[in-house]
């Protein structure tokens, strides 16, 4: 069986070099190129037609891993995409899968698991650990929270530890208005405290 042709995408040169080294001697995986950005990855995929793109989620300036995945999957001959990252928030996993990713792995995964995921993705299979599969299922079943721009402003300021008075001053509104926004935010997130609002917002990728 011929080797799976792979393009690596990570904005850190040392990570790309490390991944290349991981697959040295693995006859089932051939690293054909590496890219430092999503835009470069899409260009390489158009020219080289790899079987799989192994992509980080956070890529610095420009497109992130989710947008890169969507762009790659929209190509005329789309490669499978496997996300390899340090981030495991439910919203990010779900976003990657919804964009068309065939797999989602954490960077501390064993080399054998990463290589197996690449081969499985090339075969058209979805590659998620049982734990991540369960979490994606739960996230897809959970209702999407829609906050207004002002409610998002309140939530971001809450994250800094600002008091109601400080929130009011920053947003140029009264403390009563701040309390009203907080009631709406708590209600939409299904929480009853500032700390839980911040925690749930982080879990869902709102913050």
UniProtKB/TrEMBL annotation:
Keywords: DNA-binding, Phosphoprotein, Transcription, Transcription regulation. Residues 140-205 form the HTH luxR-type domain. InterPro entries: CheY-like_superfamily, NreC/VraR/RcsB-like_REC, Sig_transdc_resp-reg_C-effctor, Sig_transdc_resp-reg_receiver, Tscrpt_reg_LuxR_C, WalR-like. The keyword Transcription applies. Residues 5-122 form the Response regulatory domain. This is DNA-binding NarL/FixJ family response regulator. The modification 4-aspartylphosphate is found at residue 56. It comes from the Bacteria. It comes from Microbacterium thalassium.
């Amino acid at each position: 069986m011929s080797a799976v042709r792979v393009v690596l995408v990570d904005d850190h040169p040392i990570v790309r070099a490390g991944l290349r080294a991981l697959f040295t001697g693995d006859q089932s995986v051939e690293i054909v190129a590496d890219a430092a950005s999503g835009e470069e990855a899409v260009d390489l995929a158009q020219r080289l037609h790899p079987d799989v793109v192994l992509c980080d989620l956070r890529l610095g300036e420009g497109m992130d891993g989710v947008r890169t995945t969507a762009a790659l999957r929209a190509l005329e001959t789309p490669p499978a995409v496997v996300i390899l990252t340090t981030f495991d928030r439910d919203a990010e996993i779900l976003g990657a899968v919804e964009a068309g990713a065939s797999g989602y792995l954490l960077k501390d995964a064993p080399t054998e698991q990463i290589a197996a995921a690449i081969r499985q993705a090339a075969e058209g299979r979805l590659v998620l650990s049982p734990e991540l599969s369960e979490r994606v299922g739960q996230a897809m079943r959970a209702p999407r929270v829609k906050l207004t721009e002002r409610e998002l402003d309140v939530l971001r300021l809450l994250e800094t530890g600002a008091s109601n008075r400080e929130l009011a001053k920053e947003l140029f509104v009264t403390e009563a208005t701040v309390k009203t926004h907080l009631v709406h935010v708590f209600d939409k997130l299904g929480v009853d405290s500032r700390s839980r609002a911040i925690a749930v917002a982080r879990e869902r990728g709102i913050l």
